[in-house]
Amino acid sequence: MRLLAALCLLLLLRFAEPRRGRRSDAAERGSAEWAHTRGRGRAGVVRRQTQECKEYFDAGEKYLDCQDRQLTTVMEGWPKDIHHLLLARNKIQVLRDNMFSQFSQLKSLDLQQNAISMVEDRAFNGLSKLRTLLLQHNSLKTASDEVLLPMPRLTYLRLYDNPWSCHCPLDSLLRTLQVPSNRNLGNYAKCAEPLSLRGQKLKKLNVDSLCAGDNQVDETQPKPPTKKIVATSMCHTYMFPKPVLDCSYKGLSNVPSDLPSDIVKMDLSGNNIKHLRPKQFLHSKDLKMLNLSSTSLNQIDAGAFAGLLYLRELDLSNNSLHYFQYAVLEDLYFLRKLSLSNNPWICDYNIHYLIYWLKLHPGVAHTGLICAEPREFRGWRVVDYVKTYNGECPKDIQTGGANNGAQGGTENE
């Protein structure tokens, strides 16, 4: 009886196993396919886009930072409610029709330092709220005014450092740029050809005679490299949240020429600019912060800061300055902060101008005025040295003042 029961049990198990196995295999395959599809459709995309771009908020507005990502076009899956799209330093060559149409809330679009050589007429369709468009440092030769029509609120347009071909096809764009109300559209952009117009600004060309230059001879000669174009193209321009020119640690030996006039902050730190000559910042009238720290600076001519009427912060720390020549600071009427630390200040008669200027401008907070030479004054505060030089204190008190001055680097807080 037991043997018969065992045989019945074995038969039941034999018939049940294949059926259970088939269901298990199908379930496993289905689960795998579902997981793969789900991962590809959701998690995979999110993870890939997170690695490519950085999304953040500033002052209540949404930014998508896709700079330096080797991108050749706009990717699917990017958020459509962004206000500022940063695509600088990628490998985009052509702006196709409706390329940005999904970003209807966009206020600024940064496309500088790509390889853009063509913009189709409807590339900016849908960008009715766009105010800032950066296209400098690309390979554009021509474009029609139709590319600007979808952007009625456009206020800032940067087109410089492109090899513009100043022939008849550029006619309509030039007429739009030269409308008086478009004062910030296309500033500093210049012709690369024909030869007779090379170097002339698009904003100042005689548009009526533009087509007459099409028969110029020898107009295909390559544009000779100029130091100012190379220097400017090495810098990064940011328009939001405020106009900034970042030229830090670019190996520059001079202040770049043709600086944008509307920048508020300029960073030239970490370069090798040893000498500031007169009027190098003359056109940067809106500048409020200027960083010249760690530039090996050892000489500043009078008039170097001419035009910087609204400058509020000036950083000259970590340089090789010994003193200021007379009148170097005379143009800085609204200066509020002056950083002077880590300079080898020489405490002799030449340093007196700086101290007298600071006395006349008590609202300027300054740090770092410590004597490095001569040896007998090393470690003194410069202001204490000047007091001693002028004999304002008895000799026995001067020594005490010197010791107190060696304690810190702050002149006035």
Q: For the terminal residues, how far apart are their CA atoms?
A: 106 Å
- For the record, the count of structural domains works out to 3
Query: What oligomeric state do the depicted chains represent?
Result: single chain
What is the name of the CATH topology of the largest domain? Leucine-rich repeat, LRR (right-handed beta-alpha superhelix)
Write the element-wise H/E pattern from the N-terminal end onward: HEEEEEEEEEHEHEEEEEEEEEHEEHHE
The average pLDDT is 79
Main β-sheet, spatial strand arrangement: 11-12-13-15-17-18-20-22
The percentage helix is 10-25%
Largest sheet: 8 strands, mixed
The CATH architecture assignment of the largest domain turns out to be Alpha-Beta Horseshoe
Number of strands: 22
The secondary-structure class comes to alpha/beta
Q: Report the portion of residues in β strands.
A: 15-25%
Overall CATH class of the largest domain: Alpha Beta
* Radius of gyration based on Cα positions: 33 Å
Q: Could you name the ranges where pLDDT drops below 50 across 5 or more consecutive residues?
A: 18-51, 215-230, 393-413
The CATH H-level superfamily of the largest domain is: Ribonuclease Inhibitor
Shape: globular
The number of helical elements comes to 6
Describe this structure in words.
Mean pLDDT is 79; it is low at 18-51, 215-230 and 393-413. The protein is α/β, with parallel strands linked by helices and 413 residues long. The strands form 6 sheets. An 8-stranded mixed sheet has the order 11-12-13-15-17-18-20-22, with no helix packed on it. Strands 1-2-3-5-7-8 form a 6-stranded mixed sheet. The N and C termini lie far apart (106 Å). It is globular. It contains 6 helices and 22 strands. The chain has helices at 2-52, 171-177, 227-233, 352-360, 382-389, 395-405, and strands at 54-58, 61-65, 84-86, 94-95, 108-110, 118-119, 132-134, 156-158, 164-165, 191-193, 236-238, 244-246, 265-267, 275-276, 289-291, 299-300, 313-315, 337-339, 345-346, 365-367, 371-373, 410-412. The protein folds into 3 domains: 52-222, Alpha-Beta Horseshoe (Leucine-rich repeat, LRR (right-handed beta-alpha superhelix)), CATH 3.80.10; 225-343, Leucine-rich repeat, LRR (right-handed beta-alpha superhelix); 347-413, no CATH class. α5 (382-389) packs antiparallel against α6 (395-405). InterPro entries: Cys-rich_flank_reg_C (IPR000483), Leu-rich_rpt (IPR001611), Leu-rich_rpt_typical-subtyp (IPR003591), LRR_dom_sf (IPR032675), LRR_TM_domain-containing (IPR050541). Residues 1-18 form the signal peptide. It holds the Pfam family LRR_8. Keywords: Leucine-rich repeat, Repeat, Signal. This is Leucine rich repeat containing 17.
